[in-house]
Amino acid sequence: MSKNNQILLDEIIKQEMNAFEEDLSLSDFFEFYSALQVLKDYELSYDEISSGICGKSHDGGADSIYLFVNGDLVKEDEETSTKYKKNVDIELVLIQSKYENSFSEEPLLKISRLCRSLFDLDFDRQDYEGRYNDHVLSAFELFRNTYVGLITKKPKLKISIYYVSKGVDVHPNVRGQAEDLTDDVKEKLPGAESEVFFLGAEALVKMTQERPNDVFRLNISESPLSTSGQVFIALSNLAEYYKFITDDHGKLIRHIFESNVRDYQGKTNVNNEIQNTLENPGGEEFWWLNNGVTILASEVAAPGGKELVVHNPEIVNGLQTSSEIHRFYKSNQGRIETEKRDILIRVIVPESEETRDRIIRATNSQTPIPKSSLRATDQVHRQIEDYLKPRGLYYDRRKNFYKNEGKKPKEIISVPFMSQCLISTLMQKPDFARARPSTLLEDDESYEKLFHKNNELNAYYIVSLFGRRIEDNLKVAKKYTATEITDIKFYGLYVASCLMVNSLYPGSKKLAELNSNSLTGEIINYAIETTYDIYRALGGTDKIAKGPKLREALMSKLREDKQL
After folding, report:
1. Phi first, then psi: what are they for 503, rounded to 5°?
2. Residue-wise pLDDT tens digits, 122-161
3. 375 pLDDT band (50/70/90 cuts)?
4. Of 515, 520, 498, whose CA–CA distance to 507 is shortest?
5. Contacts of 164 by beta carbon, 8 Å cutoff, 6+ apart
6. Rg of the chain on CA atoms, in Å
7. How far apart are CA 434 and CA 387, in angstroms?
8. In 10 A of CB 49, how many CB atoms?
9. Burial class of residue 410 in the structure, from the number of CB atoms within 10 Å of its CB (0-12 exposed, 13-18 middle, 19+ buried)
10. Residue 306 per-residue DSSP state
11. Least CB-packed of 290, 415, 534, 539 within 10 Å?
């Protein structure tokens, strides 16, 4: 049986790699695949999975690293100290992936050394340059800054270490080493929860074969009111709603909240009131005091009168309420069977994408929301999606929609990737694209320039297509590390765009005049090699990629070589 699982896993990895059309070795693809399975519940995009992979050399035993706060992936340019309020959950995930038929002690020993070194909160990055690569050092710096920045919010800290291989049994000596590793972590970070997980062939095969649930059933208190078409309004018992939004392991089912544009805000006054109402039932019904939940679906029915069958639910309003309900019943399991109170539920099947986006905007307009949160519902993003699709690219304005549709990673253009391509070309700021794309989009002036309604749609296609080509060529070359690819790919796109439009300042109209054949092999080679040579000459670090020196040097080089 165990050998069969290894045979099946080998075949799964090969088939998945062929389906993704990734030009990687089996061991390199296994790193990507391992992270994809380990982090399945976090609903990360392909780009986000790739962003955590540390590269081959000097990784300290951590093939990939991811930091989460309240279940959300933390990006380099995020200011978490102001985003989150109180009682936050921080989790650092380290993944070691070995395409081997066993588990051994050496990978755990390497991670132990890494943790003993970099979990010192006062570690000096310069002391470890050359020993650990830029990606690893940046990841631990991000962890330190996030943890220290949130320390007054009383964070609950968890360090999760996954050792993934094709192994079957874990030798007692290896388990002993895992225990030593958790002890090392706890010594450096007192109060932290730490655990090592072993995922072998059997577990990976099982995880791969699991099908995501797209049909949910919600028990309701009375027959629902149906206004017109597939629109239902109903009351559901609070405990039944808790079951609806919770998986078998007691976790909130994140993907059904993917379209909700408002992040969970933590212990705000409103959420404290919701929690107080849950904890201290009064004479009023819960739904009298709460606006309830709005759910969009592809199909909904009430076959038995006391149950709603909801296909592909998307909770677009009610994240705060849902999160507080989940927190309450997770800690008060004894209250589930005796709960008598109800919550108001609205389930709507939108007639069109435009209607869907209008509902999201309308139901999220009552309280302040970060400006960037509603961007994907703007009409221009629907137009970009419709324009790219017949041309073989899929604009993922609804995060993971096309991933769940089975499209290949290289075919999917995420909103962050599109934004970085536009920042590099239309704003001529590849350094900003590398350093702080998220915060730049908070600015109305920048956003209007990047996604102006008068911009040519073909320009969005061209910059995203060529951005992917530059990235693919860097990967195929196999001479650049994962960190170097991350650092220079948007610079390469900028240089290539300048060459194609014969200007240091590519604009939407000029880019829109290009076609898919405009980016030649000669241009790609010049863009990549020139960028890389100058990047290395300046120091070859992520600090160089995030600052203005590399951009300025490239512009001077283009003036000198190409008279632009």
Report:
1. -160, 150
2. 989 999 988 999 999 999 999 999 999 999 888 999 999 9
3. low
4. 498
5. 30, 34, 37, 38, 95, 96, 97, 98, 199, 200, 204
6. 25
7. 26
8. 23
9. middle
10. S
11. 539
